[in-house]
């Protein structure tokens, strides 16, 4: 049995301190015990101070000058017409945080034709079914030859959070609960491939029951490994893709990527990927 790393223990402590903070808030509201306000917020301050110290001790931000690795060139994880969101081509960390190895992560939404993807609404409809979005069920492809080290399934594909009330619910309530519940509830159903040379590919928010591979399987570039879903901390069905330097998003650092023939699409950039037939098992390299 492996010994948890210092960063892993720090992430566990971070979530426990968040839970203590919420418990103190609830106790204060329900029973008015007369606890000084600074005692209520102390666990929250300690939680973020702990993560800050651990990150600095771990070498600082992975995109700091002199720290970032050279981009790893891999194949795109999708085929068809897509649009980029939260792209590392525009800023890093692309999602606002270095946590969970997502410094250089990118989100993709399917754009098969104008108007095919439902847009954000202020009030109504509050939520939509995953099947209303063209990305839902789209095949996810292995970006390189590798080994499946994690294929985590079983979480439901929830309704979209593409309206103002639903988005507020996600940010204020659901997101906080998922944060305290651990990385698995944030990335949802997910797949991690070991590509060799200390590089791992993560596919998040995968559709429940869509995995075509299991842990330990060898995959070839272009092979269908799962399908796009809307599980975890997701506003709508989309592809969340990132490279990391380890198999555990709690402790891994982000690794920059570039896609064959595409590079790294910028926010809002629409791009096409032509499907290529994957190599059959046992075929020569």
From TrEMBL:
Superkingdom of source: Bacteria
* Entry's Gene Ontology molecular function annotations: metalloendopeptidase activity
Where does the M23ase beta-sheet core domain lie? Answer: 174-245
Which InterPro entries would you find in this protein's record? Cell_wall_metabolism_enzyme (IPR050570), Dup_hybrid_motif (IPR011055), M23ase_b-sheet_dom (IPR016047)
Transmembrane as UniProt keyword = yes
Q: Quick check: keyword Transmembrane helix in the entry? A: yes
Keywords for the protein's UniProt record, in alphabetical order: Membrane, Transmembrane, Transmembrane helix
Q: Which SUPFAM superfamilies match?
A: Duplicated hybrid motif
Give TM segment ranges: 12-29, 35-54
Name it. Answer: M23 family metallopeptidase
* Originating species: Streptomyces coelicoflavus
